[in-house]
Amino acid sequence: MVKLLIADDDKAILDLLHIYMRNEGYECTLANNGEEALEIINLHPELDIALLDIMMPKMTGMEVLEVMRHKNVDIPVIFISANQTQTDKISGLLAGADDYVTKPFEPLEVVARVKSILRRQGVNAHSLAQKDSKDFINLGAVTIDTKGHQVMTAEGEEIKVTGLEFEILQLLAEQRGKVWSADEILNSVWKDNSSASTKTVMVHVSNLRNKIEEATGGEKVIQTVWGVGYKIDK
User: Fold this and answer.
1) For the residues of the chain, what is the DSSP string, one character each?
2) Mean pLDDT score of the chain, rounded to an integer?
3) What is the pLDDT of residues 82-92, one digit of tens each?
4) Tens digits of per-residue pLDDT, 35-88?
């Protein structure tokens, strides 16, 4: 499992990043100041990546990174800072950071940057999450977070799906290779809802497929078996 340190003295930001990273299946350790962050890094050399706020009490993120690099601790670091000037970003990168994110930020952007660094480090974040957590179903082009009720691209971008679309995708994904007829999907997802029909299923599958293809550049995750139903290949 990917192990990640998040250090920020702003509890709201700390909690927000924790939620998003935990939903990716990462094991997160949290720190409220620079000294605590450095102590965690010293105690856990197996960390895969660290998110460090620059302006923290006791020790700044810059100071933490300086000590890390002096001790030849090569854990990748992403700086998170309210300083938005190009000079600040360049200074952070020259200090040895692997990336620099400015506040306010979009959490999914931070997720994507973490995944990008993990890929460069030779860590397949989705496959690790899938291996260690039953809450994730990896379909290659997309990953289903069954606990967080989210569908994400391989780059970490969320695909906005409805509740019924999510249930259809999860149903097909949990039994890959099996062909589900429209009637079977109707009975499994809609259950006793008499207002729904097989045509309703077809519309929802079509909408779901279009959303996935648009988000992934045309990946055909859901296959149609003409005259029979739908499946996701193994």
Assistant:
1) --EEEEE-S-HHHHHHHHHHHHHTT-EEEEESSHHHHHHHHHH-TT--EEEEESS-SSS-HHHHHHHHHHTT----EEEEES--SHHHHHHHHHTT-SEEEESS--HHHHHHHHHHHHHHTT--HHHHHHHH-TTEEE-SSEEEETTTTEEEETTSPEE---HHHHHHHHHHHHTTTPPBPHHHHIIIIITT-TT--HHHHHHHHHHHHHHHHHHHTS---SEEETTTEEE---
2) 86
3) 876 777 678 77
4) 999 999 999 888 899 999 999 999 998 999 999 988 888 889 999 988 767 776
**Stated pTM of the model:** 0.54
